[in-house]
Design goal:
This protein is an alpha+beta fold. The protein has one domain: minor pseudopilin epsh fold, CATH 3.55.40. It is rod-shaped, with a radius of gyration of 27 Å. The chain has one helix spanning 14-65; strands spanning 69-74, 82-85, 90-93, 99-104, 113-118, 127-133, 136-142, 149-153. The strands form 2 sheets. It has a 4-stranded antiparallel beta sheet with strand order 3-2-1-5. The chain has a 4-stranded antiparallel beta sheet with strand order 4-6-7-8, with helices on one face. Strand 6 and strand 7 (136-142) form a beta hairpin. The relative contact order is 0.14. The termini are far apart.
């Protein structure tokens, strides 16, 4: 008497394939969440670096042209939020999802606008621009005595 063995075909069952797909989907969603946070941080850093570059440009212009130069930041929620160098008509738009805190000398500007002035001798009116979004933040500091502009990272809540 001959007993026939059923031969299994090599391969995967449907259940095994579904388990693998579920694991892959879970890994993809976790990776996407981590990646989107990295993109937000990179965009915030880019904004901070661009504003610092604009401030440095205004300082260099004040020294080279031997006349005052300024950067004006308007962060009014109702209007277009931007920083600009008035005489050059150079503007950098700020995102609406940013929390922005301006600490500058009162130079006759409205409450929702701030101005940092640079003088021909390299000094400035000084100030800080604090940018934050979702727990990540950057502080752009302008030293009043030297006019030097620096950017540093500072972790903070968006509404501290």
């Amino acid at each position: 008497m001959r007993v026939e063995r059923t031969r299994r075909h090599p391969g995967f069952t449907l259940v095994e394939l579904l388990v693998v797909l579920a694991i892959a989907a879970a890994m993809a969603s976790v990776s996407l969440a981590l990646f989107s946070g990295a993109i937000d941080r990179a965009e915030l850093r880019e904004t901070a670096v661009e504003l610092a570059t604009m401030l440095r440009h205004a300082r260099s212009r004040a020294i080279a042209q031997r006349e005052e130069a300024s950067v004006v930041c308007d962060v009014d929620e109702a209007s277009e939020r931007a920083c600009r160098i008035p005489r050059l008509e150079k503007t950098y738009a700020l995102g609406r999802d940013l929390h922005i805190e301006l600490v500058t000398a009162q130079l006759g500007r409205p409450d929702d606008a701030a101005e940092v002035r640079f003088f021909p001798d390299g000094t400035s009116s000084g100030g800080e621009i604090k940018l934050s979004r979702a727990g990540t933040g950057y502080v752009i500091r302008v030293e009043w005595l030297t006019g030097q502009v620096s950017v540093r990272e500072g972790r903070r809540d968006a509404h501290e």
